[in-house]
């Protein structure tokens, strides 16, 4: 199995983007959140993504965005699990990484959660894009309009070229637009963001109530017009 074979599989299962990074690309991963902490025989990480329609930003309600986000998370998990089974069928091992929570790490004082692997850092290490000042992944084709998933495997796969820096140097639109001042250009203060980003609905559900830092990014708008 080589990288092209894995990528073709990922696309056939519904991924919109797929990149691959060997384990040596993860030297800077924090202790406890390295692919080897999850699976000690890991040799490569496969990053997958699904984009969402730019039209969601034109709606006067956040319900459509919430629908697509929830569905995309399910689809990415399905793709990761299908890849896992397929890799196993070829005699290798693979570990699917959840596309969203549950957080096994939770700092209750700072309301700061971490997934078992940072999907955006994994995507950057796999050449899918770069992390912008809003701390979201910026992809050449889809801008910030991308949700992410990943699979860790013991197959030695060739890495994709790393992305150039796509975030516009003179831009700070996402920083200026955040209603909670949760962004400083390199990190996100989750405690502040959580006060805006998810809200309960009167009927007992929840809604993604803020995604301004995605919406204002000119890179997303440019790519959505193309
Ligand atoms: S989702 Fe909203 S509150 Fe959170 S960082 Fe982005 S703009 Fe700020
Ligand atoms: S809004 Fe500007 S600064 Fe923020 S991620 Fe997009 S290009 Fe970078």
TrEMBL record:
<protein>
    <submittedName>
        <fullName>Uncharacterized Fe-S protein-like protein</fullName>
    </submittedName>
</protein>
<dbReference type="InterPro" id="IPR017896">
    <property type="entry name" value="4Fe4S_Fe-S-bd"/>
</dbReference>
<feature type="domain" description="4Fe-4S ferredoxin-type">
    <location>
        <begin position="158"/>
        <end position="188"/>
    </location>
</feature>
């Amino acid at each position: 199995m080589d990288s092209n074979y894995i990528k073709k599989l990922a696309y056939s299962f519904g991924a919109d983007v797929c990149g691959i990074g060997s384990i040596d690309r993860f030297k800077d991963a924090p202790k406890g959140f390295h692919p080897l902490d999850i699976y000690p025989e890991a040799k490569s990480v496969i990053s997958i993504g699904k984009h969402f329609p730019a039209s969601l930003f034109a709606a006067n309600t956040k319900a459509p965005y919430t629908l697509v986000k929830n569905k995309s998370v399910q689809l990415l998990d399905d793709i990761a699990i299908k890849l896992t089974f397929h890799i196993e069928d070829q005699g290798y091992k693979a570990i699917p990484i959840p596309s969203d929570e549950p957080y096994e790490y939770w700092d209750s004082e700072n309301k700061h959660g971490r997934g078992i692997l940072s999907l955006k850092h994994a995507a950057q290490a796999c050449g899918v894009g770069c992390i912008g000042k809003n701390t979201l992944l910026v992809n050449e084709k889809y801008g910030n309009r991308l949700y992410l998933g990943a699979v860790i495997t013991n197959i030695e796969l060739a890495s994709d070229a790393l992305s150039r820096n796509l975030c516009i140097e003179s831009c700070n639109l996402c920083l200026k637009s955040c209603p909670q001042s949760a962004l400083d250009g390199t990190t996100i203060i989750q405690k502040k963001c959580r006060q805006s980003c998810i809200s309960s609905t009167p009927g007992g559900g929840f809604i993604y109530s803020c995604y301004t830092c995605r919406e204002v990014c000119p890179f997303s708008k440019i790519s959505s017009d193309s």
